[in-house]
Amino acid sequence: MATILSILSLVLGLFSFQAIAVPTPFIPRDVSPALPNQRALQNEIGRSLSKKAALYFPGQPEYKNLTTRWADNINPNFFVTVEVGTEDDVATTVKFARKYNIDFLAINRGHGTTKTLSTVKNGIQINLRQLQEITVAPDGKTATLGGGVYNDNVVNALHAKGKSSGSGAAGCVGLMGAGLGGGYGRYEGFYGLVLDNIIDMNVIMADGSKKFVSATSNPDLYWAMRGAGHNFGIVTKLTYRIHDEISPTWYLNTMIFKQDKIQPVFKQLNKLIANGTMPARVINYALFALNPNISTTEPVITINIFYIGSAQDAKPYVQPFLDLKPVSTQSFTTSYPDIFYAAGTGLNDFVCQEPIGSAYLYPMGLQTYNVPVIAQLFQLYADKVKSNPDFSGSNVMLEGYSLGAVKAVDPASTAFAHRDDNILIGFLPRWTPGANLSREAEEWGSKARTLVQSGTNGRPLSAYVNYAHGDEPLEAVYGYEPWRLERLRKLKKRYDPDFKFRFYNPIR
Fold it and tell me: Of 271, 345, 337, 267, which Cα lies nearest the Cα of 301?
């Protein structure tokens, strides 16, 4: 079953760093001084950084380690990596980049799959991996987190104190990479999105200045950072709302079905999701993938039903799927940190290894499954992986989270525009490294997106910003209500008038 879990591990929250071609009004003019050479760079910026910081250049092993990404076809180009050791190091690096008009991009874990990341040219990577503070407050209600924390270390640190909070579904993914754009996860039925738990933030702005951001300090920026945050600044520290653990145990049942069961399986998923009213303790993931333990040529449908609690209490939600006679089933009862590994999304699992190959991602938010269209989507996927073995690692993720706490938040209170989505689909073309299949992958992803949209009864495309491919209309990413983009554009001009943060679906 290890292979099954490796395949299932692709059901995760991938957190994309986006970039769109720079529009004319914002094109930076090349009026900067000549770029310093390596020695001059070490002398100028190196002397200004803390003793914890380090500079790495192409050709050095650590440079390769820090610039290797989850998808190897996504290649932002850096002439130096600055591994910052303090908040001041981030500010210093941003000011240096501005002085020489150099692109810069803050990186935590590097799981973004948008092709437009590759538009970073001769830039500076600001690597946040040292900013790992996790301190639980004496009252147990909040935690102070560094900007470089990731799901695995946060989940384990909180669990050790009997606490939990919102986090993504894969242990290796950065918490704030997700949180600035939303942050879906298994606890959101109780706690909401990752961004719903952010109380305040220390943010380095585009000019290198520092701002404390909360509901009462820079409240307009607090609104924008929660849902469109990659457009406005680099988070170096945050105060995070935490909670007593709901249950000491989690249950997971993994079931595998062949194609002939797709319609009854998805009809049952619609009943479970119940138009966004699924119980808070229940989470479902579906996956289309090749599973060599079942067949090397015929893709299968994997259904994961998670339950926050015991196997006995989970039975009413699992049994209807078991009644459909899966070809394989496996169950686990374990702790929350270990549920990541049970699902194959743990820090050391296959899905978290880098690079995993070449990949793109196409998101589609839905309110319910159009079952005949989902059957066509499976066929579109199956035809490609059967006809071209280079695409055999591709999959389709269909994620169903409990949404009670998400929908309880006023949609206008944050820049996140997708609280009415009940389902998140991620179509993931993945192909053999070195194969010249980028264009074919994009054509395939576009076909899948068009097909799914044909079954939404005219509801426009909803594209979760952290999954966005990079070619979606901004309205699909940031919301169709005119006031949303109007407000974001005004704030963008105020806080980033020179368009320095332009590599993650930029507001324009």
Answer: 267
Q: Is the dihedral of CA 496, 498, 504, 505 positive or negative?
A: positive
The DSSP code for 140 is S
Give the largest Cα separation in the chain, rounded: 69
Alpha carbon separation from 487 to 19, 233, 478, 479 (Å, rounded): 20, 17, 11, 11
Radius of gyration of the chain (CA): 22
Q: Using alpha carbons only, what angle is made at residue 257 by residues 255 and 263, rounded to the nearest 5 degrees?
A: 120
pLDDT surpassing 50 at residue 441? yes
- Cα–Cα distance measured from residue 331 to residue 256, given in angstroms and rounded to the nearest whole number: 12
- What type of residue is 424? L
Instruction: Kindly state the helix (H) or strand (E) to which residue 285 belongs, with its residue range.
Output: strand 282-291
- Taking Cα atoms as reference points, which of 385, 357, 383, 359 lies closest to residue 292? 385
- Report the side by side order of strands in the sheet with 362-366: 328-334, 250-257, 295-307, 282-291, 395-400, 423-428, 362-366
Instruction: Please list, in sequence order, all residues whose beta carbon lies within 8 angstroms of the beta carbon of residue 234, skipping any fewer than 6 positions away.
Output: 90, 94, 106, 126, 128, 147, 203, 204
Pair type for strands 104-107 and 123-127:
parallel
The pLDDT value given to residue 119: 76
In contact, 258 and 298? CB cutoff 8 Å: yes
Alpha carbon distance 373, 461 (integer Å) = 15
Distance, in Å, from the CA atom of 263 to the CA atom of 82, rounded to the nearest integer, reads: 51
The single-letter DSSP state of residue 121 is: -
**pLDDT for 31-65, tens place per residue?**
445 667 778 788 888 899 999 999 999 999 999 98
3-state secondary structure of 493: helix
Closest residue by Cα to residue 93 from 146, 133, 55, 132 = 55
Query: Could you check whether the bond before residue 76 is cis, i.e. omega within 30 degrees of 0?
Result: no
Q: Which two tokens stand for residue 180?
A: 């600035």
Q: Could you give the residue ranges of the DSSP H alpha helices within 26-77?
A: 38-44, 61-67
- DSSP summary character for residue 343: T
